[in-house]
Write a structure and sequence with these properties.
The structure holds two protein chains of two kinds. Chain A is an alpha/beta fold. Chain A is built from 16 helices and 16 strands. In chain A, strands 1, 2, 3, 4, 7, 14, 15 and 16 form an eight-stranded mixed beta sheet that branches. Chain A has a four-stranded mixed beta sheet with strand order 9-12-8-13. Chain A has a two-stranded antiparallel sheet with strand order 5-6. In chain A, strand 1, helix 2 and strand 2 form a beta-alpha-beta unit. Chain A is globular and about 65 Å long. In chain B, strand 4 and strand 5 form a beta hairpin. In chain B, helix 1 packs antiparallel against helix 2 and helix 7 crosses helix 8. The longest helix of chain B has 43 residues. The radius of gyration of chain B is 36 Å and the shape is extended. Classes of the chains: A alpha/beta, B alpha+beta. At the A-B interface, helix 1, helix 3, helix 4, helix 11 and helix 15 of A face helix 1, helix 2, helix 3, helix 4 and strand 1 of B.
Chain lengths: 410, 537
């Protein structure tokens, strides 16, 4: 008898699992269908941090329009690949939260629909809207803008340095162990953090075409400015100002411990320093090559699925609700990321740290979202690391530029 | 009760009467409880299956619905019929095997023969739809029109108010016409006699229809079309792409270039320029050919394959050697508190592997790592950035991660070898080394060899360790390929198939099949050879 009972339990568990597996993917769309009768419903993928704010905005939206909003929590990093995989099946969400540099993947896979900001476009900071554009077409509503800046320990360095060399001199005068910190990787340096110095030599990664979007055909990384930047990397590496053994974690640890007056980082590392009792000021990134030091900005926002059956409601929700001052301010209060809506940003700028990063961000450029960027990342960081660690700057940099060109063409 | 009628071999001359008697006896001894449990259990199962069927039929997933029906019927038949004891045992396992293993295997096998990946993500229909969607460009400096959606006899019209206050009406393929008698509210036309204005609720209810409407601005379609993204405002768009359904081609309306479907899974111009997104097609053995012919793969393939074999073999050898040595030491009865030492020995096995790899990566930092600063007193040994040291470091960390497992299994196997054999050998005058070499080790290998083979297969694909510890590095930047000194086949595949955010699932699946064939081949040969060991017994 034992046999039969055990078998029963097994088969019970089995069929439960089997049914769940087989129906799991259809369940989401099923609920969407059933609600369609009373004004439709929207499925929104959002990460845990922002779900609480969206819940209030969604409730307002439902009260006003009768459209039900279902928030599905996802791990932020998983959203890109899952969205790309699920939209074609027709079971994907109507709206997702995401980062602007996913846009290239989204557009090449045909999973996002253009968004018309209309007259509202002027209400957002220009860099936010540019970042959300791909080949001249706007695909998302921006909600936050993030970039790096120079974080200064005011107790160790009283004034803002104008150039990189001046900063190093001030850093050495401070008598701390390190004049300047930036988190790098022993193997792949960190092109993202070193990019403002690269642009200060006049060597952006890609040129831009007429409508301001990056052009994969116009690779500019290997121009004369690029060579100058490579030579500068070699010099700073030899002088020990740039050290690939100082990883992101180590740099943060040492700045928080007061071992350096300057630290090139983003707003995400500032709270730790403030909690440690360091009085910080946010400065523009000093130029190393004479031109403006432009960091990359990362913009986050909302995208609409190309296969959404609720396109009008989805657009209404993200443009007129997620783009409202109230929601953008609320999102800022929860996540601490500078809002993309100018009005909300100005309100948030009461905080000098937000204002400081925002000032640097005005000068920043969106990180390219074109698929060709994948080829750039492959070669960029390792070459920088090799040059910092004593490789021949000009030949390595030109080799990298050539390899990237080949990879993009291939 | 331990025997039941159906498992009885069955007396030859069992009368109907005695069968009935047995059944009554069965029932009296509690058999009804079993039947009730059976009915209850299968009832729950069937209820869930029927619910699943409702959902599946409504979403028109006929194939899956058919499978669920078949599986449910099969399960009911197996558990309601008498006998079929083997099926009762095996059915759950086999069904799980089919869902979680066989289906997944077949599916990834199928992917290897498609171009599924970034840019080829869905059907042609979806690709056309997405291309047309993103080709809608708003006319530069065009105003935004205030919109009221009207309905008359089931037909939708757009009532638009221009910024200068003039009002006009139009519909799908019906160009705008001026209207004078519209009802205004704050300068915006909100209604027209004979038409019903739609509220937001009505608009949402008909949003698919409304979103598809494009109203020509004038009789000339080149002036652009009015479309609405949200039902309350309209914008003027021109389309830069035109789809010719009959010919199956896309035409760029600005340059006149024609892109046609030439069987590569994307619209391609005569000059070879592709429009993305494309769509998923079957490509036969293309991915396998690419796996061996593409420059970025072919170049490093040999060195990576050699290192993969070396890494897998040395990992198994070193962990087994250390594990065996420790097992012998801790098996010696003269050792005190062996239990506690054993617990400590097993600790590395208890940590998640990827976490340990990250911690080791930190400890091996050239300038700030624990090993260099504390153990070596400030030496700057490039543990992870020198090609050969990095290979050594990878093996060392894998030894640290892997020896507890070998320690565990060899301890068990050693304890299973009868003590008398050692005594007999000693009596015969054998030295301890000879006892180990000629008595214990062969017996040990009989039980451990299959584990060594599976350990080899595991290390052959030990992606976690490589990815977390060195990410394949250090790389020779002058080589021009994205493959480093410690990259094994699986981590190389990851780098080649997934560049940045680009995914090439077809190529990755083809590689997975190639690696599977390699590992399976080696395992089969090794298992054959271990059979000779078994003959020792």
């Amino acid at each position: 008898m034992k046999v039969t009972k055990r078998g029963l339990w097994a088969v019970g568990a089995l069929t439960v699992t089997a049914s769940l597996v087989l129906t799991g993917c259809t369940a989401a769309s099923d609920t969407t269908d059933s609600a369609a009768g009373n004004g439709g419903s929207l499925t929104v993928w959002v990460d845990a941090d922002r779900a609480s704010v969206l819940k209030d905005a969604a409730a307002d939206f439902t009260a006003e329009t009768g459209v039900e909003v279902k928030l599905v929590q996802k791990e932020f990093g998983d959203i890109r690949d899952q969205f790309v995989a699920q939209v074609p099946t027709g079971k994907g969400p109507d709206i997702v939260i995401g980062a602007h540099d996913w846009l290239g993947t989204f557009v090449t896979n045909g999973v996002v629909a253009p968004v018309e900001l209309g007259d509202k476009a002027d209400d957002f900071q220009a860099v936010g809207v540019t970042a959300m554009s791909y080949e001249g077409q706007v695909y998302g509503v921006p909600y936050s803008i993030e970039n790096i800046a120079l974080v200064r320990n005011t107790a160790l360095a009283p004034s803002t340095p104008a150039t990189f060399d001046e900063m190093v001199t001030m850093g050495q005068a401070a008598g701390t162990e390190y004049p300047f910190l930036v988190g790098l990787d022993p193997e792949a340096a960190d092109p993202y953090h070193l990019y403002p110095f690269q642009t200060s030599f006049g060597a952006p990664v890609f040129g831009t075409d007429a409508d301001g979007s990056y052009d994969a055909e116009a690779l500019e990384i290997g121009n004369a400015g690029g060579d100058a930047f490579a030579a500068w990397l070699a010099a700073q590496g030899a002088a020990g100002v740039l050290n690939t053994n100082i990883t992101g974690d180590l740099a943060k640890e040492k700045f928080v411990a007061g071992e350096a007056p300057f630290y090139l980082t983003g707003p995400w590392n500032v709270p730790a320093a403030v909690e440690a009792g360091i009085d910080v000021a946010i400065d523009p990134i000093p130029s190393a090559g004479g031109e403006d030091a432009q960091p990359f900005v990362g913009v986050q926002g909302f995208f609409v699925s190309a296969k959404s059956e609720n396109a009008l409601a989805a657009n209404e929700f993200i443009v007129n609700y997620m783009g409202s001052e109230e929601v953008q301010t609320a999102l800022f209060e929860v996540g601490g990321r500078a809002p993309a809506l100018t009005a909300s940003f100005e309100a948030a700028s009461a905080d000098p740290i937000v204002a400081g990063f925002g000032t640097v961000g005005e000068n920043a450029v969106p990180m390219p979202s074109i698929p060709a960027m994948g080829a750039v990342w492959e070669f960029w960081g390792v070459t920088e690391a090799a040059i910092i660690n004593g490789g021949d700057p000009t030949s390595l940099w030109q080799k990298m530029s050539g390899d990237i060109q080949t990879a993009i063409a291939g | 009760m331990t025997t039941s009628p159906q498992t009885d071999p069955g007396p030859l001359r069992q009368s109907a009467r005695s069968k009935r008697a047995t059944r009554i006896a069965d029932a009296a001894s509690g058999g009804w409880k079993v039947v009730a449990a059976k009915i209850l259990g299968l009832g729950v199962v069937d209820a869930i299956a029927i619910y699943a069927l409702f959902v599946l039929v409504r979403s028109e997933s006929w194939l899956v619905a058919g499978l669920v029906t078949a599986v449910t019927l099969l399960v009911n038949w197996i558990y309601f019929s008498r006998g079929k004891l083997p099926a009762k045992y095996l059915a759950p396992g086999l069904i799980f095997l089919a869902i979680f293993q066989i289906f997944v295997l077949l599916y990834s096998g199928y992917i290897a023969f498609t171009n599924y990946g970034t840019g080829h993500n869905s059907t042609k229909e979806d690709a056309v739809n997405a291309l047309l969607l993103s080709s809608q460009n708003r006319v530069e400096d065009s105003p935004s029109y205030k919109l009221t959606v009207l309905e008359q006899l089931g037909e939708i019209s757009f009532l638009v108010t221009e910024p200068d206050g003039s009002v006009s009406i139009g519909g799908n393929e019906r160009p705008l016409e001026d209207v004078r008698n519209a009802q205004l509210e704050g300068g915006v036309a909100v209604g027209l006699n004979g038409y019903t204005p739609l509220g937001f609720q009505d608009i949402i209810a008909k949003q698919t229809e409304i979103a598809a409407i494009s109203v020509p601005l004038t009789d000339d379609p080149n002036d652009g079309m009015l479309r609405t993204p949200d039902g309350s405002s309209a914008f003027l768009y021109t389309s830069s792409l035109e789809y010719d359904e009959a010919a199956g081609t896309m035409r760029d309306t600005n340059s006149g270039t024609v892109y046609s479907d030439i069987g590569t899974g994307a619209f391609t111009s005569d000059a070879g320029q592709e429009l993305l997104p494309g769509w998923k097609i079957d490509v036969g053995f293309d991915n396998f050919i690419r796996a061996f012919s593409e420059e970025s793969i072919r170049g490093p393939l040999i060195s990576v394959t050699v290192w993969t074999f070396a890494f897998a073999f040395l990992s198994v050898f070193t962990t087994f050697a250390l594990g065996l040595f420790l097992a012998i030491v801790f098996n010696d009865k003269r050792m005190k508190s062996r239990k506690y030492y054993r617990i400590i020995m097993i600790l590395p096995y208890a940590f998640p592997g990827f976490l340990s790899a990250l911690v080791w990566a930190g400890m091996m930092n050239q300038e700030f790592g624990f090993i260099n600063t504390v153990l070596l007193g400030g030496a700057e040994v490039p543990w992870l950035t020198n090609e050969w040291l990095a290979k050594g470091s990878v093996l060392f960390v894998n030894l640290w991660l892997g020896f507890p497992y070998m320690f565990l299994v060899t301890t068990g196997a050693l304890q299973a070898i009868p003590e008398e054999l050692t005594e007999a050998a000693t009596v015969d005058g054998a030295k301890p080394w000879a006892i180990f070499r000629f008595v214990k080790l062969p017996l040990l290998l009989v039980s451990v060899a299959p584990l060594l083979i599976s350990s080899f297969a595991f290390n052959f694909n030990n992606f976690n360790l490589i990815y977390m510890l060195t990410n394949g590095g250090p790389r020779d930047v002058s080589a021009g390929v994205n493959v480093g000194a410690t990259d094994i086949l699986i981590s190389m595949v990851y780098k080649v198939a997934f560049v940045g955010a680009n995914r090439d699932y077809g190529l990755a699946s083809a590689f997975a099949i190639i690696i599977f064939i390699l590992v399976a081949g080696i395992s089969i040969i090794s298992f054959r050879r271990t059979k000779s060991l078994e003959e020792l017994n």
